[in-house]
Amino acid sequence: MAIRILVTGGTFDKEYDMINGKLDFEDTHVPEMLQLGRCTLDIEVRTLMMIDSLEMTDTERATIALNCKMAPEEHIVITHGTDTMPETAAYLAQENINKTIVLTGAMIPYKFGSSDGFFNLGAALAFAQTLPSGVYIAMNGRYYNWDNVRKNKKTGFFETLK
Amino acid sequence: MAIRILVTGGTFDKEYDMINGKLDFEDTHVPEMLQLGRCTLDIEVRTLMMIDSLEMTDTERATIALNCKMAPEEHIVITHGTDTMPETAAYLAQENINKTIVLTGAMIPYKFGSSDGFFNLGAALAFAQTLPSGVYIAMNGRYYNWDNVRKNKKTGFFETLK
Amino acid sequence: MAIRILVTGGTFDKEYDMINGKLDFEDTHVPEMLQLGRCTLDIEVRTLMMIDSLEMTDTERATIALNCKMAPEEHIVITHGTDTMPETAAYLAQENINKTIVLTGAMIPYKFGSSDGFFNLGAALAFAQTLPSGVYIAMNGRYYNWDNVRKNKKTGFFETLK
Amino acid sequence: MAIRILVTGGTFDKEYDMINGKLDFEDTHVPEMLQLGRCTLDIEVRTLMMIDSLEMTDTERATIALNCKMAPEEHIVITHGTDTMPETAAYLAQENINKTIVLTGAMIPYKFGSSDGFFNLGAALAFAQTLPSGVYIAMNGRYYNWDNVRKNKKTGFFETLK
């Protein structure tokens, strides 16, 4: 099954810049993670942007939506910062794209040795293969429908609204 | 959704014994992995055995089948060595258990820092939530039906028969 | 040989705070590192502060000097941020403490999986055992006398002045 | 200061072979470790053999001794399996080579994510720079003279004889 992964940045891909002592983006780690996971799916990875999800505006969301529509694949995984992941999911849902779209991310950067990102990527790819058309968030081993999810900013866990 | 994880050992859980310089089993790493993955699913973990899958006989397989049947959960993940994973999947399929059963494992031990196991566990849990009743293997980011899978012993990748 | 380790913070001990997405201090990782290094030296670890070395003032430096003097051990290792490590070394040298004092640190936090800190700690402990009384910096596998060292802010490597 | 590192194998450099499920040698990890440690010493790395130290015979020891003598450097670090490290140290001591020779190794392979090897390498390089001519073992954060050391096979720690 062909899957497209759209990379947008987020904690998932953050790195430590040793010269300025800050967290920063360089290249995405998704290809390295797919190799480590020994993934044999037919996957295309496209980096659309490398930003903190707090910087995500409708311009970026329109770019993501466009890429979801134009992709030849019917199954799409989007790596995204956790802070505004539900907002982007809602934006994409309103675009009525007839594909299975799964957003995922991480609370801890992949490069920091104890990240949830690798686990989340495995789950997101599995959900993208098995869920019907729609927009979902895959975090914490679960999937959430776009209209029934929020991030609990105190605990860092995602939860349903109802 | 309630999921039961049955632990049977395999490369997934192997550790390096520094005193004798060999690979060995101690406790399972599954609970630690669920925590690292920040998993909020309702999961029960049961260790049934801690063996190399080359040592797996019908006695062990009957134990696994029994535990699948008796578990209150309808969704089951089994961690298992890769060498005989398809044989155990076939055994379980013949038991006609009306549940979603997903076997997974790893080519590299979780403790060795570059394991596929964490990715596979995320995928297996996702498949266990979304696939219909049946017996499956989750490896390499994909799922395989029990009657259409083999491990390629030369490459270490799983592949379909047809 | 008895060695005292004085912990002051620095990149060495920084962690990723997943709730606010920033780098922060919690407890020191030095005891965990000594255990991982299977260290059998007679070591006392004391946390004096947990700060970025850019926040280090003479108040903090006086505290460090006092602790060097009062310690029953003749061999002292100080973990310290790299940015002002030479300044603290110079301050301690002017105190004329008749002990072997070795400052060390890291360019990448220990917790981030690819840190130089574990290597530096091994080297600093070795230098503390073998160098004569004086104040030194142990970084990059080498030791530097307090009056002949600076950090190259562009490369992140330490270098001699002459 | 110029240092030569002679690589002989040992647990230090063992890797997990995912196809046969055994521990094996490929290339040495010493250059990668020096880079991670951000080491700026003038170091030459030479791989002499890649063996378990239980396979070390006088033929191999003579090769190591020859390389110690012929090296232009006065300071030498040898990576070596722990089981017969004291025997090789004693062999080298009898050769009366007028250099500082430090043997080191690891109880857990470097590649396994929780190895003492990186810490030991930092310490061994520091001891090689500061100790007078002689043959030493650097393990557990300490150095041992060649004629006063044994490995405790039960605990895996090195200890003095008297």
Q: Mean of the pLDDT scores of chain A? A: 96
Helix content of chain A: 25-40%
Q: End-to-end span of chain A in angstroms?
A: 33 Å
Greatest interface and its participating residue counts: A-B, 36 and 36 residues
Report what the structure shows:
4 copies of one chain form a homotetramer. Chain A is α/β, with parallel strands linked by helices and 162 residues long. Helix content of chain A is 27%, strand content 31%. The first copy, chain A, contains 4 helices and 10 strands, in the order E-E-E-H-E-H-E-H-E-H-E-E-E-E. Chain A has helices at 30-36, 58-70, 85-94, 117-130; strands at 2-9, 14-17, 22-25, 42-51, 75-79, 100-104, 134-139, 142-145, 150-151, 158-159. A 6-stranded mixed beta sheet of chain A has the order 4-1-5-6-7-8, with helices on both faces. In chain A, helix 4 links the parallel strand 6 (100-104) and strand 7 (134-139). The longest helix of chain A is centred in the C-terminal third of the chain and has 14 residues, at 117-130. Chain A is globular, with a radius of gyration of 15 Å. Chain A starts with a strand and ends with a strand. The B-D interface holds B 11, 16, 18-19, 21-23, 52, 107-109, 111-114, 153-156 and D 11, 16, 18-19, 21-23, 52, 107-109, 111-114, 153-156.
Summarize the structure.
Chain A is α/β, with parallel strands linked by helices. Helix content of chain A is about 25%, strand content about 30%. In chain A, the strands form three sheets. A six-stranded mixed β-sheet of chain A has the order 4-1-5-6-7-8, sandwiched between helices. A two-stranded antiparallel sheet of chain A has the order 2-3. In chain A, strands 9-10 form a two-stranded antiparallel sheet.
